[in-house]
Amino acid sequence: MILDWKIVAEKIYNELKNEILPLEKKPKLWAILIWNNSSSIRYIKQKQKWAEYIWVDFELLTFDENISQISLLEEINKLNIDENISWFIIQLPLPKHINEQEIINSINPEKDVDWFHPINQWKIVIWDETWLKPCTPAWVIELCKFYNIDLIWKNIVIIWRSNIVWKPLANMLINMQATLTICNSKTKNIDFYTKNADIIITAMWSPEFLTTEKINKDTVVIDVWFSVIDWKIYWDCDFENIIQNWNKITPVPGWVWALTVAMLMKNTLKAYKK
Amino acid sequence: MILDWKIVAEKIYNELKNEILPLEKKPKLWAILIWNNSSSIRYIKQKQKWAEYIWVDFELLTFDENISQISLLEEINKLNIDENISWFIIQLPLPKHINEQEIINSINPEKDVDWFHPINQWKIVIWDETWLKPCTPAWVIELCKFYNIDLIWKNIVIIWRSNIVWKPLANMLINMQATLTICNSKTKNIDFYTKNADIIITAMWSPEFLTTEKINKDTVVIDVWFSVIDWKIYWDCDFENIIQNWNKITPVPGWVWALTVAMLMKNTLKAYKK
Description:
2 copies of one chain form a homodimer. Chain A is globular and about 55 Å long. The two termini of chain A are 38 Å apart. Chain A has 10 helices and 10 strands. Chain A is α/β, with parallel strands linked by helices. Chain A has a 5-stranded parallel β-sheet with strand order 5-4-6-7-10. Chain A has a 3-stranded parallel β-sheet with strand order 2-1-3, covered by helices on one side. Chain A has 2 domains: 15-110, 3-Layer(aba) Sandwich (Rossmann fold), CATH 3.40.50; 135-249, NAD(P)-binding Rossmann-like Domain (Rossmann fold). In chain A, helix 5 packs parallel to helix 7 and helix 6 (135-146) packs across helix 7 (166-175). The first copy, chain A, has helices at residues 5-20, 38-53, 69-81, 100-106, 118-126, 135-146, 166-175, 190-194, 239-244, 257-273, and strands at residues 28-34, 57-63, 88-90, 155-160, 179-183, 199-203, 220-223, 226-229, 232-235, 248-249. Chains A and B meet through helix 5, helix 7 and strand 5 of A and helix 5, helix 7 and strand 5 of B.
């Protein structure tokens, strides 16, 4: 069975739209874009499109890609102290000459609707529930909720390589009382863990590494990232064979941007209502 | 075999002392104590004793236990901006009327030698190595290093209940490429994980829960917390039987304060040298 994030995203956008339409003053989202690469531009256009679809005002603030670290910090500070601006996002990645972490640290945590600031991220580690949630981990949990896949008290395995998106997710799952095993490419006996898993979340960038032999028939497989080899996209799991095996699995291929952005819009409305 | 933290602590204190003795200007540590409970006082006295033993100047700043949140924030701000004060610690727990997390958040992260501030803690999550390390997780890693217990690529199990000390440790172990399973009291088949573990770190507060049947003979057991029932102290592991089984195990009973404080002094010297 396919866990179709498109259906989940559509449901969320419609719910948000129904809630926002009757509001006299619409919520507004400010976004900083450093005009540097096509993937940032494509991503920010997605955000704009979906914001406008659900009647969220979207204001894009663009800066030249040669902007210095100091000038960018000054621009962020202006937003931080401007009482008319309630929250804003900064589209990542930033140009190479910019220290990205320092920029993230400079955002006023109370205006950080992406929930990227270390103070906000650390709240995820130490608390069961936070006010807003980082968008990528949030969609994994939302997707499971939609399909009635219980996470509490389940054996969950995360297989990761180098990106950090899974880390807040890992901490959120621990707080949900999951028994969580975090495996990596050096794990001695990975089958031991994957065969015992109720749910596997993989972000290993290892083409079709997760085969039917490594899982059992009840395992839910959530494949959050992919590799590109010779212009062809590969996922971590052997989708074609696993889907025939009746496991629940996320659709491959597929871009989950729409669902990630839906989580951002959820945060925006939550922040607006506060 | 007993993993004796006393030997490790002694070694570290002697190393620090040898390094500090020849220094013309000694490192100094400032500590805030809210005069409220006997365990805080006992703990801060340990810190003072060990600081003085290794020739670190120790200055205790005490405040009345009725100090208001705002006054305490003002006092911390004075330390934050005072150029003569390089770093300081705040002895926890704080009185009940004080919002502890807000106080921790108010410390200048660059003067936070306990490494408690969310910005510092989050660095542990996203980075492999941080400049300073939080003291409790640091001693677990130091103890293993002393006894040549390799953590990298090992199967490690953490069994926790409600405290948060283990969370930075979990994140540090993940960054060390351990395959880490985090179990809790609701884990469906905990033996499955403990029997496959190279190392078990337990902070469950469940008296003698971890018996010889639940582990194998090569498993290292690190028992970091205890329960008190009818004035008697119980550890999570059945120490008497496990030790006869030739497993490597932390000494029970035993207070690891001296080793935790050794880690604080290590941070202080590191900060001083910077």
